[in-house]
Amino acid sequence: SSGINAEYGGNIKLLNDTIEKNAAFFIRAGIYLILEKLKVITLRNLFKKIYLITGTFQIDVARFQVALNWLGLEDVDSDETECILANMINDGYIKGYISEQHKKIVVSKVTAFPKLSSFL
Fold first, then answer.
1. Which residues contact 7 (CB under 8 A, 6 or more apart)?
2. Averaged over 43-69, what is the pLDDT?
3. Rounded Cα distance, 91 and 114, in Å
C-alpha cells in the first residue's frame, strides 16, 4: 500500500495524499486517528534519514525544512519545522534538544531515535 511505503520511506507528502484521498473510507473504518499518528512516525523516519545522511549529532533545522519542502510541503517554514522537531522531542520520538541560538537540533549520541516499540 502507498501509505505503508510512505511511512517507511519518510514520504509525508505521499502519506498525506493517501489519507486525504481515502479519508471517508478511513473514517468509516474507524482508523483515521491511527493514521494521524502514522504521520508523526513518518516524519520521525524522514528526520532519522536526514540524521543518518548528515552523520552528525548537530543538524541545521534548515535541512529538515528543505526535506519537507522538497516533499511538497512548500508552506512549512523554519518556525513550523522547529515546532515539529520540538514536539517530536517532547513526545520522545527524538532524543535531543534544539539550540535556538544556532538553529540546530542536537541529538543524543546514544539513542537519537528510540525504537518505535518504546513509545507505541
1. 15, 38, 41, 42, 45
2. 94
3. 11
d(CA 53, CA 91): 23
Q: What is the mean pLDDT of the chain?
A: 88
- Length of the chain (residues): 120
Pick 76 or 117 by higher pLDDT.
76
For 24, list phi and psi in degrees, rounded to 5: -60, -45
Q: Which strands make up the sheet holding 58-60, listed edge to edge?
A: 58-60, 104-107, 96-99
Cell representation of residue 113: 531515535
Q: Which residue has the cell 493514521?
A: 35
The contacts of residue 73 (CB under 8 Å, 6+ apart) are 12, 13
Q: Which residues are 117's β-sheet partners?
A: none
pLDDT digits (tens, 9 = 90+) for 24-43: 999 999 988 888 888 888 89
Q: Using DSSP, how many helices (H) and how many strands (E) does the chain show?
A: 6, 3
Cα separation of 118 and 109, whole Å? 18
